[in-house]
Design brief:
- The protein has about 400 residues and is α+β, with helices and mostly antiparallel strands.
- The protein folds into three domains: about 70 residues; about 90 residues, PDZ domain (Pdz3 Domain, Roll), CATH 2.30.42.10; about 200 residues, 2-enoyl-CoA Hydratase, Chain A, domain 1.
- The chain is about 35% helix and about 30% strand.
- It is globular, with a radius of gyration of 26 Å.
């Protein structure tokens, strides 16, 4: 017996079992000639469910009999599962196959193979680059935040097929993958073809330097399981070097784990709220900082590639008046997903709540607006301390921090 038929029979048995259970237990049921009569309203609901599943079975039967090509039953069933979640029309909620779930777990652990770009489904149904990860093949190839990935290895992919596209972009180090990028520049769409060689991506999410002898600089490229420990170590080393101010660079940081972000915020903020989430029932959960934190004057750099967890950190610092936010308005991802593993190794990633900055501000679809807005000069291709003389955003942040130190 095929897997599809087993699932179909199981669904029918489940429905029938529920009907019988309902009929025996519902105290509103009426007895007539020793038969259970289900009240009209409940009968209509049960009939609707049966009609829905009978339509699914009919569609499957038509496809099986008339479709031109052979049907991969596993993909056919997985497609139904994906369709259930896609019907929510939420780009951040997904059904993950076993392979996709393992791949996602690799990314949050800090090591995976590929080209090093973070993508999200766009409202235009195109795969949208949140940001390239620093010092990865994708960044070196010139991929930018906001680029649309149209083709991978010559095959077109939409946002609904993003997981499949990501799997193709990943692969063994020293192998090549071709991308077709659509970039909107001066209201004109430009198509760009790129050949990129994959590498083993080990995310060094924390990089630190001392600038001008007295400014501590920490760049956070994402928030994974290792980020907080690395940040804590970098901060202690900078403080032991007697720096007089701290500059945190969150540009092109696509986010990551909320717990890691909260731990870092706790090292920077006074006692109070870091962020709170609210679900559809109005239930709130708060993450708070304690009294222990660095006293160094603080400035934070952000741009349109700063998303999710980066926005939580920037928003908390801004609401606490702990330091100036400098750069351009952030990406605007202000919803929280939870991943629930399923028994067969697959999982569902579901948007369960929206997050708010300590002052109650929602940034979803809006972003965090910087205190001091500074556009990056068009001719700047590399940002950070490696290009200090050309990175005008970083130079502005340094000037502001020097004034705070005075």
């Amino acid at each position: 017996m095929s897997k599809k038929k087993i699932i179909t029979i199981s669904v029918i048995l489940l429905i029938l079992t529920n009907i019988v259970t309902f009929g025996l237990t519902n105290i509103l049921s009426l007895q007539f000639n020793n038969k259970v009569i289900v009240p009209k309203k409940e009968y209509a609901e049960i009939s609707s469910v049966l009609e829905e599943y009978s339509k699914i079975l009919l569609l499957e039967s038509i496809i099986e009999e008339d479709y031109l090509r052979d049907v991969d039953q596993d993909k056919f069933i997985e497609g139904q599962f994906k369709g259930v979640v896609q019907s929510l029309e939420d780009p951040y909620s997904q059904y993950l196959t076993e392979k996709e779930y393992k791949s996602l777990s690799e990314e949050t652990s800090g090591s995976f193979g590929g080209i090093g770009v973070i993508v999200t489904p766009g409202d235009d149904n195109l795969i949208t680059v949140v940001s390239p990860i620093e010092d990865t093949p994708g960044e070196r190839a010139g991929i930018r935040s906001g680029d649309k990935i149209i083709k991978v290895d010559g095959e077109e992919y939409s946002a609904e097929e993003m997981d499949e596209a990501v799997e193709v972009m990943k692969g063994e180090p020293n192998t090549d993958v071709s991308l077709t990028i659509m970039r909107r520049d001066n209201n004109v769409n430009e198509m760009i073809d790129m050949d990129i060689t994959r590498e083993k991506i080990r995310l060094e999410t924390v990089k630190s330097n001392i600038i001008d002898d007295n400014i501590g600089y920490i760049k956070l490229t994402s928030f994974d399981e290792l980020t907080y420990d690395d940040f804590k170590k970098a901060l202690e080393e900078l403080e032991n070097s007697n720096v007089e101010g701290l500059l945190i660079d969150l540009r092109n940081n696509p986010g990551g784990l909320l717990d890691s972000t909260a731990d870092i915020a706790n090292e920077l903020l006074d006692k109070g709220d870091i962020v709170y989430t609210e679900d559809k029932n109005g239930k709130r959960e708060y993450l708070k900082s304690d009294e222990s934190h660095t006293e160094l004057p603080l400035v934070v750099l952000v741009n349109e590639g700063s998303a999710s967890a980066s926005e939580i950190l920037a928003g908390a610092i801004q609401d606490h008046n702990r330091g100036e936010i400098i750069g351009t308005t952030t990406f605007g991802k202000g919803v929280v997903q939870r991943i629930k593993p399923l028994s067969d190794g697959s999982a569902i990633k579901l948007t369960i709540s929206e997050y708010f900055t300590p002052n109650g501000t929602s940034i979803h679809g809006i972003g965090v607006k910087p205190d001091i807005e500074v556009e990056l000069n068009e001719d700047v291709e590399v940002i950070g301390v490696e290009n200090l003389n050309e990175d005008n955003q970083l130079k502005e942040a340094m000037d502001v921090l020097k004034e705070k130190i005075k």
